[in-house]
């Protein structure tokens, strides 16, 4: 190995072993409101001015801002020997809470729930299952039960899950032409964020979000009156309760929460109630067939190990589940982040 190759290898090691610190810098700047302040100010601010407005220490704020510049979350320009800080396009688009495509709530969820849980990853790998119950003080509760155990936790989880659809919702719902599916059920659809994307694309369709009692109760309180005629909510557990007949069922980031047996159980149940010519639309991050990537899918598979009983899968693994459930025609399209699979009932 040459000196140049050796240097680059060590540089890669350094960045990866400090990846957790990079994440925490971003989480901290979000939580303190750095990106919101700079977006609202409309002009670059000094570290002293930012510290004063946020009520943070001048020295700590300056170091945090400099680190954000190195991570390309902020930009800095010098004027009269003073550093003035402003948001990058990334920060304005995804890190400020007021942006329509903000990922603030998902970052907050990562910082408060996922980040602490990953401290136990060594034990989780040894045992082969995620001890989320004990590491978060939620004994005898699943991740989903814990997430619904209070209004505050439910809101945190719901807001975090919604953030992804502000970036990818339109893309995944337009991957296939779904206009001929008039009655659609979104199973585990939460607040209805993906359902809103669906009705905006397909004006002749109606969609029912099917989710647990507490989720539906909260969603109804926050649903927009303009959508009430085309988006409805129904309480239920899609494993335990009957699922009504429909033309299309959406399972978005749902099957990766469960083992193969439960996925097959649910898909078989949907095949039985699905109208002829109807189908099931699955939206997930997929592993490549050789399981060597993509990087994002492997990260999410680790998260599934920590939080749930599920995993990320390859296209052929999903096709096998569809086929075993009775679906004969299975199509797959790859999006910028999520893959979209449509299985049709003959």
Strand order across the biggest sheet?
Answer: 6-5-4-7-8-10-9
Topology, number of strands:
10
Number of helices: 16
Indicate the structural class. Answer: alpha/beta
Helix share bin: 40-55%
Q: How does the overall form come out from the CA principal axes?
A: globular
Describe the structure.
This protein is of the alpha/beta class and about 350 residues long. It has 2 domains: about 5-95, Orthogonal Bundle (Arc Repressor Mutant, subunit A); about 105-345, Rossmann fold, CATH 3.40.50.150. The chain has 16 helices and 10 strands. Helix 2 crosses helix 7 (about 105-115), helix 7 crosses helix 11 (about 150-175) and helix 14 (about 260-275) packs across helix 16. The longest helix is centred in the middle third of the chain and has 23 residues, at about 150-175.
Give me some keywords for this one.
seven-stranded mixed sheet; Rossmann fold; 346 residues; alpha/beta; 10 strands; Arc Repressor Mutant, subunit A
Describe the secondary structure blueprint for this structure:
Elements: H1 3-17, H2 19-32, H3 34-41, E1 45-46, H4 47-54, H5 58-70, E2 74-79, E3 82-87, H6 89-95, H7 104-117, H8 121-127, H9 132-135, H10 143-147, H11 151-173, E4 183-187, H12 193-201, E5 206-211, H13 213-222, E6 231-235, E7 246-252, H14 260-273, E8 274-284, H15 295-307, H16 315-325, E9 329-334, E10 339-344
Parallel strand pairs: 4-5, 4-7, 5-6, 7-8
Antiparallel strand pairs: 1-3, 2-3, 8-10, 9-10
